[in-house]
Structures are given as structure tokens and as C-alpha cells.
Amino acid sequence: MVARVEHSVVTGTQPAPVNHLQSYTFDSLPLQYGGQFGPVTLAYETWGRLNAAGDNAILIAHALTGSSHAHDPEHPDDPKAAWWNPLIGPGRPFDTSRYFVVCSNVLGGCYGSTGPASIDPSTGQPYGMRFPLVTIRDMVHAQRRLIEHLGIRRLVVAGGSIGGQQALEWAVCYPELVEKVIVVAATAALTAQAIAFSEVGRQAIMLDPRWQGGDYPPGQGPDAGLAIARMLGMITYQSEEAMELRFSRRPARSCEIPTPTRTPSLGKRFDVENYLYYQGQSLVRRFDANTYLYLSRAMDLYDVSEGYPSLDAALARIRSRALFIGIRSDFLFPAARVRWLAGRVRELGGDASYIELDSPHGHDAFLKEWEQMSAALRWLET
Q1: What is the pTM of this model?
Q2: CB 73: neighbour CB atoms within 10 A?
């Protein structure tokens, strides 16, 4: 039984819907690590029209602190207005005059989907750390419910970073539904080094006295801890090359942005420090700390082979055409590992291609290199 539905879906020649945040709620979801959880609400946005056959859909999966707002039709040329804006719209790689494009906020998120900041109906209080541990596979299973509800019968799945993990999981878990998959800056599992950085960020959040075991009042959370976690994360999203090009050892022009701890600088401040303080401050304004804990852990835990006899057994399930996009300077998901994954899928009989972005911008290049991304995504039309 569905608890609540708020949506508008059109097919065929009907007028396109007004673009706004929509939601779909279902009763419960079995979780990868045991138990049932519900009710579950997924917030989502759509652009374009679903055809009568239900086979022209593209599901876009967002990155760690992203949302369903991948495209903004009112400001289509502004990358700051929506995170994949330059790639979505009429005549663009994800062409909304041809495709029905869907992007949902993940299970565990804080942009309208059920997550740690949501109200637990049994207590009337936010779930906090009583929210269950959710995985990439759980997120994909929840998306599958949404896709089925929308009447989609075949689809393309694309995403970068944790969104790339979701795209890969879709291809393995639902081979009968996925026609094409685009895995950007993601691999079969994170490296030990990447997990280590992620754990340091989580510990910074939990060390903040305002965290209160996860039971902080809304708007009064562990701002310093979350800002520091974001600062550390931003370092892993960059590359040494990009840092030197952008900042080098230039001094900061001002010290107006406070440090997360509100302590004074030791001597002169560097420009790169100001950048990190700004990024930390920006995330605190828009994101929930407990959500950061859960989603970053889901990213760490992901292993596409889990539940299968081997990695090869998991990858052999892929029946879709697959495009893997690596980034030359990616520290978090090294290009060599993305390239290897594409090659392994090919060796197992799959139709897999690999394209590498030649960028100094590290992991974040898939959110910056619009010309290279657009060129790579021409693969969709081949």
C-alpha cells in the first residue's frame, strides 16, 4: 500500500509537466544488511516527457552532497543553478526534447527524501542516529520503486562519484531494465586510502560537542565538525596540480571568513585556507551532518561484488552498453582503476567503452569540464 504520492507524469503528446520538486512514498523497503524500513519518501524532479513505450528515460544519480536539482530550465546556462545544468536540456547530451530525464534525491538524503533528519513517525522526532544503515544497493532498490511507479520500462542510468556507484549497481542489479549505463569517476569499490579520509571527516563531526550523539536540534548541529569534514573532502576532490594552478602559496586577500573553530590564524593566512573555510561554511548552510555520516559511509561500504561469488560474477551480469569515464588527475577514484573496470567488463563479454577526461581538476572535473563531458556523452548517440 502506498502511503502518499505527489507527482505529475505525462506520456505521449500531452503537455510537459511544470518542473518542480515531486515526491513518491511507499510503505517499506527491505535493506541489504537486514530488516525492513519505512515509510520511504523519495524526492525527485523530471524534465521532458516519457513516451508511450516507457523506454526513453534517463535516470541521473547525484554525488555525495547533491540533490535532485540536476537541471534548472529557468537558468539553463548557469552551472551554479543546478549541478549538471550544462549537460541537460534540449539539444544537450541528456536531451530533454528526446528523453524523459529523472533525478531523485537518494534514500538517506536531506533534500526531501527520507533520511536521518526526517521525522520518525513512531516518535515524532528526527531519526538521527536511529536511522538504519543504508547502502548504495538500498538506494538503487528504492529508485527502482520510483522508476516502476513512473511507468518506465527501459532506461539509461548515469552518475558521477557516489552517483557513479549507483549507476554501476543499477547495471549489475537490474540488467533487464538498463539499456545503457554511464559510470563517471567511480569504481567497483573505494580504496583503503579513500575510506581513511572519509573516516577522518566523520570523526570530526562526531567530536564536535554540538553533535550530541546525533540528537542535535534542527539548525543547531555540529557546524564546526561538518565544516572540517567538508574541508577534508574538498582536498580529496582536487588534485595537487589544480591546487597549485589556482592557489599556489598566495596569501589570502582578507580574513573575513572565520575558521570553523573560530580560532585566530597562526600568522598569515593562505588563499587556499580561505577557500577551504568558504567551502566548509557553504556546506553547513545547506546540509545535515548526520546525513553526511550516513551517505559517506554508504560510499565507503560499497562493493559491487558483495553478495555474488566474485567480482567477475557481478560484472558478468551487466547486459547494457556501458561507458566508463575516468579523470586523469582523480585522487579519489584513480583513472587507472576506472579504466581497469571497463576493461574487465569487456573481457567478460560486455560492451564497455572507456573515455578519460584530460583535466587537472581532480575528482571534481565531472562537475567542471563541460566541453569534455559533452564530447564524452556523444557516446549516447552511437
Answers
A1: 0.94
A2: 16
